[in-house]
C-alpha cells in the first residue's frame, strides 16, 4: 500500500468519525433542550368507551320520536341486514298531502358500517349484556337514522340529526343513541 492510499483511508475515517460526532452532539443538544423544561407531547389517550345502558333482562325502549322509524326499518326488512351496505337514502313510502295535494316521500337514511371504534358495543355483547347467545357472536354493525323525513317530491334532502340506531347484522341486537354515539341504550333484538 502506498503512502497516498493510507493517508486517504485515514482522512476518510476521520471524516466519518467527525460526522458521527456531530450527529451525536446534535442529538444530545436536542435531548437536553427537550429535558430543560420543554416536554414532548405524548399522543392523546384513546377515547373512553361510550357507556351502554340496559340489558337483555332490562331492555331500554327508545323515545317515542324514534319508534316510527324503527318500525319502518323492520317493515322494509332492515336494508343491508345480511351485508353491510352503503350510506344511502331509502324511500320507505309516500303519501299525498290532503291539504296541498302534493306527494310526500318518507325518507330514512342508512349510514353504512358503524365501526365500533372504542369497542363499547362488542364489549357489552361479549360480557353478556345482550344475553348469552350474543357472547363472542361477532358480526358487523349497520347504522340507521331514526328520523323519518317527510319530503315533498323534488325537494332538497334535509340535513341529518344525531338520532341513530346501530344493529348487529348477525345477531339482530339493536342499540339506540340520541347523542351521535356518545352513549348507547340496548333495546333488544329486532
Question: What is the topology?
Answer:
Elements: H1 3-35, E1 52-53, H2 64-75, E2 87-96, E3 103-114, H3 120-126, E4 141-145, E5 149-152, E6 164-168, E7 173-177, E8 184-189
Description:
With 190 residues, this protein is an alpha+beta fold. It folds into two domains: 1-42; 52-189, no CATH class. It has three helices and eight strands, in the order αβαββαβββββ. It has helices at 3-35, 64-75, 120-126, and strands at residues 52-53, 87-96, 103-114, 141-145, 149-152, 164-168, 173-177, 184-189. Strands 1, 2, 3, 4, 5, 6, 7 and 8 form an eight-stranded mixed β-sheet that branches. The N and C termini lie far apart (87 Å). The model is unreliable at 29-34 (pLDDT under 50).
- β-strand percent reads 25-35%
Radius of gyration: 30 Å
From N to C, what is the helix and strand string?
Answer: HEHEEHEEEEE
Quick check: average pLDDT?
81
**DSSP strand tally:** 8
**What structural class do you assign from the helix and strand content?**
alpha+beta
Number of helices: 3
Tell me about the largest β-sheet.
8 strands, mixed
Described by the principal axes of the CA atoms, the overall outline is globular
Amino acid at each position: 500500500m502506498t503512502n497516498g492510499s493510507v493517508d486517504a483511508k485515514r482522512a476518510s475515517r476521520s471524516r466519518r468519525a467527525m460526522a458521527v460526532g456531530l450527529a451525536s452532539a446534535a442529538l444530545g443538544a436536542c435531548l437536553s433542550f427537550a429535558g430543560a423544561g420543554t416536554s414532548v407531547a405524548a399522543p392523546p389517550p384513546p377515547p373512553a368507551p361510550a357507556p351502554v345502558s340496559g340489558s337483555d333482562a332490562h331492555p331500554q325502549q327508545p323515545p317515542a320520536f324514534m319508534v316510527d322509524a324503527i318500525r319502518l326499518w323492520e317493515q322494509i326488512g332492515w336494508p343491508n341486514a345480511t351485508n353491510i351496505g352503503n350510506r344511502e337514502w331509502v324511500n320507505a313510502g309516500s303519501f299525498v298531502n290532503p291539504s296541498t295535494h302534493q306527494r310526500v316521500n318518507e325518507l330514512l337514511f342508512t349510514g353504512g358500517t358503524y365501526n365500533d371504534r372504542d369497542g363499547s358495543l362488542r364489549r357489552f355483547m361479549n360480557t353478556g349484556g345482550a344475553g348469552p347467545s350474543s357472547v363472542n357472536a361477532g358480526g358487523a354493525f349497520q347504522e340507521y337514522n331514526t328520523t323519518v323525513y317527510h319530503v315533498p317530491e323534488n325537494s332538497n334532502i334535509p340535513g341529518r340529526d344525531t338520532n341513530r340506531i346501530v344493529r348487529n347484522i348477525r345477531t339482530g341486537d339493536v342499540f339506540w343513541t340520541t347523542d351521535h354515539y356518545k352513549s348507547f341504550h340496548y333495546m333488544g333484538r329486532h
